[in-house]
Design goal:
Helix 6 packs across helix 9. The longest helix has about 40 residues. The chain is mainly α. Helices cover about 60% and strands about 0% of the residues. The termini are far apart.
């Protein structure tokens, strides 16, 4: 009997086996790709969930930090004008504190006001038992070397504060707080009073809405030569 491959040269058993194998493997490949895609999407969702849990995304919930900046609509121009009387007056009102904090964020120096607020909260502790954990948190966040929000303190003030942290009392951070307060009062506060954010509040404007600005260059008569007015816009 002759070889069937010679009688039917178009018959290719190897190719047939390959096709059958491909048909069997194709669903498995699709299923594996589907699982891989689902796994990747799940990992992205998990990463996003962890990211949203970070403190940066919940600033209003952070202890010792002011809440969301007060909207300009809730601040009268008369109230804003009073903030210019003194730095104490500005910080004594929540709206003023929030506005000043917003300004410091534009200068990337919000750690100063956050430290001051944390110290104010620390001094409100009712028992000695509350002082130690609060003092440790403040020290590790704002004072120790390479702290995540290290404030600018002179060597002597930092050394005294570091020594007192072992047995904290109500006045442990007074020297450091006063130093940061004077820094803000003499440096940041005058710039705040000259800032667009504050001036808009005084004029009763909403700082969240950009004000119209003139073009960066002056127009000349030549700019309008040959241009006909378009009355269709009126």
């Amino acid at each position: 009997m002759e070889n069937p491959l010679l009688l039917f040269p178009q018959l290719n058993i190897s190719a047939s086996k390959d096709k059958s194998y491909y048909k069997i493997m194709k669903p498995a490949i699709k299923e594996e790709a589907h699982k891989s895609g689902k796994s990747g999407a799940k990992q992205k969702r998990n990463r996003l969930s962890l990211l949203l849990q970070k403190p940066e995304f919940h600033e209003g919930d952070h202890p010792g930090k002011p809440g969301n900046s007060t909207k300009a609509a809730s601040v009268s121009p008369e109230a804003a004008v009073k903030w210019g009387e003194s730095f104490d007056k500005l910080l004594s009102e929540k709206a003023g504190l929030d506005a000043f904090t917003k300004f410091l964020k534009t200068e990337f120096s919000e750690e100063n006001i956050e430290f001051w607020i944390a110290c104010e909260d620390y001094k409100k502790s009712k028992t000695a038992h509350e002082l130690l954990p609060k003092a440790k948190t403040i020290y590790e966040t704002f004072i120790q070397k390479d702290a995540p929000k290290e404030v600018n303190l002179d060597f002597q003030t930092k050394e005294v504060t570091s020594q007192n942290i072992e047995q904290p009392v109500i006045t442990t951070f007074d020297a450091a707080q006063n130093t940061v307060y004077r820094l803000m009062e003499q440096d940041s506060y005058p710039r705040f009073l000259r800032s667009d954010l504050y001036l808009n509040l005084v004029k009763g404007r909403n700082p969240s809405r950009p004000t119209l600005r003139r073009r960066s260059r002056s127009f000349t008569v030549n700019d309008f030569q040959g241009v006909r007015p378009d009355f269709t816009v009126w």
